[in-house]
Design a protein that fits this description.
alpha/beta, TIM Barrel, 9 strands, binds SN-glycerol-3-phosphate, binds magnesium ion
């Protein structure tokens, strides 16, 4: 039996508008063990759940998140750019960019893990670590939260603020994960699927701390289940949950 958890990447990015409340709800309905979300900070210090530094790709607005207030960002649709999805419903158009608080509140009834990726590798958001932790302390209950980032200083700042946090470095190129985990004091690593599947011989024995993104192809998901990695982060959680359930039957 596999202990691998299935995490929905930006919700269920392959089927629903990414990083939206409808996408998170659908991923939960599809049986995820956890969700991966991306966060940035607004001009008024609010934490919003969106992948890019700018609004343009995923909303009908434009400009940088850092230059807009939460109220301004809420004027735009986060669903209307995704009418091509098979499951498209007109109600997606009223989806807004969620705040982290809204996501934490949505998750309250569900026993799932949350991976918050702090998107600090391109822009520096001074104070984002404090603001994220404050929201999780206030609205997160006793949920397991994993903080990840491509930007190591962000993770170390989180750890300095609260030594109990679970931090994981994101990377596309680490082939000696155990060395990184030990040396940097990380709880885990989040590696891309190609790095993992091309370095399997380096990874034996440390899978408890390893989550792998973004595994969407059936053969990738099956290989990662065989490897018993800690979690598979996927755009298609329903498919991954199906392959996992096959192993448990
Ligand atoms: O956290 C895994 C993955 O989300 C990292 O890349 O660009 O999809 O946020 P990206
Ligand atoms: Mg991400």
């Amino acid at each position: 039996m596999t202990g691998t958890k299935i995490f929905g990447h930006r919700g269920a990015k392959g089927s629903y508008p990414e990083n939206t409340l409808i996408g998170f709800q659908k991923a939960i309905d599809e049986g995820v063990d956890g969700l991966e979300i991306d966060v940035h900070m607004t001009a008024d210090g609010e934490i919003v759940v969106i992948h890019d530094e700018r609004l343009d790709r995923t909303t009908d607005g434009d400009g940088y998140v850092k230059d807009l207030t939460l109220e301004e960002i809420k004027e735009y649709s986060a669903g209307s750019r995704f009418p091509h999805f098979r499951n498209y419903e007109a109600t997606w158009d009223i989806e807004k960019v969620p705040s982290l608080q809204e996501v934490l509140e949505l998750l309250t009834p569900y026993d799932i893990e949350l991976n918050i990726e702090l998107k600090t590798n391109r822009l520096l958001y001074t104070g984002i670590e404090e603001n994220v932790l404050a929201l999780v302390h206030q609205y997160g209950g006793d949920r397991k939260v994993i903080y990840s980032s491509f930007h190591l200083p962000t993770l170390l700042r989180l750890k300095a603020l609260d030594e109990s946090v679970d931090i994981a470095l994101l990377s596309r190129e680490i082939s000696h994960p155990y060395d990184y985990i030990q040396t940097l004091g990380l709880e885990g690593l989040h590696l891309d699927v190609n790095t993992v599947l091309s370095n399997v011989h380096q990874l034996k024995g440390i899978f408890g701390d390893l989550r792998v993104w973004t595994a969407n192809e059936s053969n990738e998901i099956k290989q990662l289940l065989d490897l018993n990695v800690n979690a598979i982060i996927t755009d298609f959680p329903e498919k991954a949950a199906f392959y996992k359930s096959e192993r448990q039957a």
